[in-house]
Amino acid sequence: MSDESEPEGLREWFHWFRTTDHGAVVYVREVGMSIAAVLLVGLLLFAVSGVWPPMVAVESGSMEPNMNVGDLVFVMDEQRLAADAAHAGTGVVTYKDGREVGYKKFSDYGDVIIFRADNESGTPIIHRARFWVEEGENWYDRTNPDHIGGADNCRELRNCPAPHAGFITKGDNNPQYDQLGPLTEPVKPAWIVGSAEFGIPKLGYVKLCAIELQTPGRQPKCPVG
Q1: Which one of 3, 13, 128, 168 is least enclosed by Cβ atoms within 10 Å?
Q2: Closest by alpha carbon to 22, among 48, 44, 3?
Q3: 212 burial class (0-12, 13-18, 19+ CB within 10 angstroms)?
């Protein structure tokens, strides 16, 4: 094909698109390559993690100082590469069991899990699994007194006795267990999206800023100044 002739056939058109220095085509080509690269990386991460999306951004300070707002966290199916100390086929190691065997994630004992509160839609919660309770269990005596808001017995604790089996959870920076308030009941394994494996500081702001721009009135998460 000469420089002045038009390409003929699919092969020539593809060669022209790949090699031409025409400004508009170069722009489209570079954008297309960038999108393809992002999709490829996403698919590779999904293949490793078994979770989509495989990366989530931390939106609150409930896990500080071990996770901070704007961290990008890699999430893996909790059943993959589950530790021997994981509770009864759930793939999750609790704080209690992790302390006994020296198993740590994000600078403290046990797994940090990503779950949907009461299996509802909305932003998943990233908190640490503290211990497991059985349906109907009085779990008051298994609590840390510092995390129960001064309650003296099971009757003074929300979700005690346990309405069903599941994990008692807590943000590392929160004063009380999640189950003491309206946030969630004991977390059933089916509500778990995955476990947090590692975080990349600040990179999650890209996602948080994009969400903020698309949601008028949303509490600002983008860094200012």
Answers
A1: 3
A2: 3
A3: middle
Q: Which of 43, 42, 71, 51 is nearest to 193 (CA)?
A: 51
Chain centre distance of CA 92? 14
Return the half-sphere exposure (C-beta side, CA atoms, 13 A cut-off) of residue 91.
17
Q: Please give the mean pLDDT across all residues of the chain.
A: 87
Measure the CA–CA gap between 225 and 220, rounded to whole angstroms: 13
Q: According to the model, what pLDDT value does residue 219 have?
A: 59
| Spatial CA neighbour of 137 closest among 113, 175, 167, 116 | 167
Spatial contact of 66 and 108, defined as CB atoms under 8 Å apart: yes
Torsional sign, CA 213, 53, 184, 170: negative
Rounded mean pLDDT of 124-147? 97
157-200 confidence digits (pLDDT tens): 999 999 999 999 999 999 999 999 999 999 999 999 999 999 99
- Give which of 201, 218, 214 is closest to 70, Cα–Cα: 201
Neighbour count for residue 47 (Cβ, 10 Å): 9
Candidates 35, 188, 56; CA nearest to 124 is 56
Name which of 23, 15, 27, 26 is nearest 2 in CA terms.
15
Contact 191, 118 (CB under 8 A): yes
Q: Which stretch of 12-21, 88-97, 110-119, 196-205 has the lowest confidence by average pLDDT?
A: 12-21
